[in-house]
Amino acid sequence: MKRITQKIMQEIMLLAALTGMLGGVAPARESPAPTWLDDYKIVWTTQSRNAVDSMPLGGGALGLNVWVENGELRFYIGSPDTHTEEGLLVKLGRIRLKTTPAAFASDFRQELDLANACLRLHGRTPSGAEVRLRLWVDALKPVVHVECAADEPLTVEATFESWPDPNPRYTVKPTLGGLEWNYRLNEKTYADHRREQIRQCGLEGAESQVADPGRNLTYGGRLTGDGLVPTGEGRGVYLKTPFRAWRVKTARPTRKLDLRVLTRVEQAPTLAAWEEGLAALERSTRATAPADYAATLRWWREFWDRSHIVLRPGLALPARERDPAWQVGRNYQLFRYMLACNTTGRFPTLFNGGFFNVDTPAADGEPLASDGVSLTPSPDDRLWASCFFMAQNQRLVYWPLLTTGDFDIMQPALRFYRDAAGTQRARAKKCWAIDGTPYPELIDWLGLFGWNFGTPGGHCKAEHLTYHYTSALDFAYMFLEYGRASGRDLRPCSRRSKASSPTTINIIAARTSGAPAGNSAPTASWSSIPPAPANTAPIAATTPTSSPASRPSPTACSSCPLKY
């Protein structure tokens, strides 16, 4: 029951097939709290053994793994965009909260409430005083909220943890009312790695056409709350991974405390510019939590109102916990929720865990007997990490979203292919002397093959992938269907007729025009889609109401699906 993340990922293929078969579901017409989701609340009444027993929580482009272990609240912060110099995806850190007296001495309850976009915790102190916590992630801003209320004063200690010790990734410093941490990619290490990959692929002289997502890349965050003061540093080992810890606590016991974890991922010209951007986010959200939560709630209610599949509705406990059909329906809601936690990211959700991966306690860094791939216990490691974007697996993540009407969740994948187009054209021209955009099966964040997988001949070194290009056609067809279903004009601005204007195509009409009767898909609105991050452009610049005169010129438009 508690291994939600792993179980959901294991059922991805079944859920994808289910979504495709049951496309003709009716959309909701209003946006009250969706009561049909109440049956899908996940409730635990015992604390977790470790991070493997964690609940997912997220929004925008952040994903948390949340659990309570030995009376302490802990959570990882994940992002689709926090890459190392080598292009590997890593966490934004781990937060640990401890109270005195203990908040979860008895009457423990942990609940994931999908309808209200939050995770709730309940407990009682040794004296019987009630303690309530609510965690939620802003769907429109990169901010995590932890709200605590207690019937007796508590001293709250908050800790930021980074690994591996003795050389943790993040640089940490105390700030007024909290802690701040950052990591800025080493310029030389990244440039050398990128240059060598370009050489391996035979693309010397075409460096300017290869994506450069790690240049000046800086990421990190700030933990802040009223009355927090620094209390020192520490060390420890969690599930075989040594870490460093930086602590703050409330200056005096309190009955109410609202903590915020503000995050920022940016290709900033300087570290000072990144720090100012984070400080501006802190200032702008200092007193806006009620309004921000209301906006987040609206976003999620519009999301759940697009479409839904409910299997065996009304099945009572405990029968539904033993019913395979009901369990598939529940896991469908949870998996769709986890996918919706990345709508504004620059990079797509990875097939091998997304940004909800956690520690692997059984791993020891040795090759696994099954396939020879090694795995360390670290929460920053995952199987097939070096593959990055393996298209034949990634397509399973994104095909079902056409049917559910979740076009905003598709945006990171569309942006990824758009931004990699220049690299593919350069490879075709340089290696084969042809004009084309041949996307390979294996693509890393540079649009190349990954470390030691490139060859001067322009193909992937892996024997089973050398001539594997069919998944690119899979995604091309997917994006054409996306344009047909959403009504978006996918052509580059320079190829659009100035005499015509984009038309709104209702997804039902689009599906029924070429689909069997009864297989229409739900409607979906673009009005709730959050903007792309500042360093990436939305896929389509024109809107259904734009006129030819209001469209950007071809030379000024940077938001075409492909840049010509």
Layout: helices, strands, pairs:
Elements: H1 4-10, H2 12-21, E1 42-44, E2 55-59, E3 62-69, E4 72-78, E5 94-100, E6 106-113, E7 118-124, E8 130-137, E9 143-162, E10 171-175, E11 178-184, H3 187-200, E12 217-224, E13 228-238, E14 241-250, E15 254-267, H4 271-284, H5 289-306, H6 324-339, E16 389-390, H7 391-398, H8 400-404, H9 407-432, E17 442-443, H10 470-486, H11 507-514
Antiparallel strand pairs: 1-6, 2-3, 3-4, 4-5, 5-9, 6-7, 7-8, 8-9, 9-14, 9-15, 10-11, 11-12, 12-15, 13-14, 16-17
Helix pairs in contact: 1-6, 7-10
Descriptive notes:
With 564 residues, the protein is an alpha+beta fold. It has a domain of 246 residues: Beta-galactosidase, Chain A, domain 5 (Distorted Sandwich), CATH 2.70.98. A hairpin with a 2-residue loop joins β2 and β3. The N terminus and C terminus are likely disordered.
